[in-house]
Amino acid sequence: MASQSSLFTSDFKPAPYWWDNAQPEPRTDAALPDEADVVIIGSGYTGLHAAIQTAREGLSTLILDAESAGFGCSTRNGGQISTSVKPDFAALSSRYGEKHATDILKEGQASLDYIERFVREEQINCGFEKVGRFHGAHTARLFQTLSRACKDENPAFKNDAYMVSRADQHTELATDVYHGGVVFPHHASIDPGQYHQGLLRVAREAGACVISHCRVAQLQRTGNAFQLETSRGPVRAGRVILATNGYTGPLTPWHQRRVIPIGSYIIATEEIAPEQMDRLMPKNRILSDTRKLVYYYRPSPDRKRILFGGRVSLHETDPRKSGPKLHAELLRLLPQLKGTRISHSWNGFVAFSFDSLMHKGQDNGLYYAMGYCGSGVGMASYLGMRMGRQAAGREDGKTAFDTVPFQTRPLYTGNPWFLAPSVLAYRLRDRLGV
């Protein structure tokens, strides 16, 4: 067995692959204004899309981030875009009724449509492409489950999904591990780093001010406004938008109790010969599977590497430790890659919710959208936009998520102490195929 050190290339980087072509900006030295109509906490997809809307409505808009702009999962994700909503129509209907369930699912479709339109209209060069997704069934029973779901067309929208048998799955992915799968032809891929850079440009052109390395330490209401104490001094805001998702902390304990920060880990391989890539991933799909502890992977935009992500540890860990574990799982799926090393390994924090739904709402001028449950590229963009419109007083800012109760659990204060036993339980369920 190869030593762990031999799995890494000589120029290995414990940093996102996306940063090679889109480095995070250095510290912003702009002066902190005394006040703004809207202060946005967080400079990822959610915050920037909200800022574009409020700034274009003529509101003075200030974006603050404790780190570099986009330091969080907006430049650390896998660059996969779907219709985002995890619970199916039956599950949502049992909770909220058929009409509300349909409305929620339509928001998922709208998020995919929105990001495609936005990238095109704003001329963001980020490799957006509708490559489609192959979702592999890791057991024969789950292939039948996918097949039944594929036949029962979603009443909210036509997804054009179709099944691929195990005998034919090499047309999608050169593995024998899956028992076939389903293709969602409209799902898309993107370069997250370049997308974020484009968003920064659009937000600034709209008039928003972005100040990085400016941590908000306190947030207090003062009458009809807010007072924020930051590491660079105080600022007064008429409205505040919370855009922190997986990095939501004690600044807003109500929200912290409602999202579960979970580390998602990704590796990039060293460059792979073009002919091998064409054999392994002939259709350039984004890929995932039916495991509870899902793996998600894809070719890099230039088709020279494979990016492979998932959760492989009971606890949060160092990407140098998670990298070899992800590499082993990649080889289990694609043993043809034996001898291929790791060039990058990194992680970012996503936010899950207790009901597996994203949430959006507001409380007397404090607006939030978060809990994207691993589907943040499209939904963070979309809900950020809708939240920005709502903060600007527009009627089209509301969504079907606004009336969904944002749940928490007793004894939960933001530290996911239950994560390790949950991961163990999911591993067992994955082995059993349930």
Concise summary:
The strands form three sheets. This protein has a nine-stranded mixed β-sheet with strand order 1-17-13-16-15-14-5-7-6, sandwiched between helices. Strands 2, 3, 9, 10, 11, 12, 18 and 19 form an eight-stranded mixed β-sheet that branches. Strands 4-8 form a two-stranded antiparallel sheet. The chain has helices spanning 45-56, 89-96, 98-121, 140-151, 192-206, 253-256, 274-280, 319-333, 376-391, 419-432; strands at residues 8-13, 35-41, 61-64, 80-81, 133-136, 162-164, 181-184, 188-189, 209-211, 216-222, 225-230, 233-242, 260-269, 286-289, 296-299, 306-310, 342-352, 359-363, 366-370. With 434 residues, the chain is α/β, with parallel strands linked by helices.
Describe the sheet with the most strands: 9 strands, mixed
What general outline do the C-alpha atoms trace?
A: globular
Helix content, binned percent: 25-40%
- The overall strand count is 19
Task: Give the N-to-C terminal Cα separation.
Answer: 32 Å
Mean pLDDT: 94
Give the percentage of residues in beta strands.
15-25%
Please report the number of helical segments: 10
Helix/strand order, N-terminal first: EEHEEHHEHEEEHEEEEHEHEEEHEEEHH
**Helical/strand content category:** alpha/beta
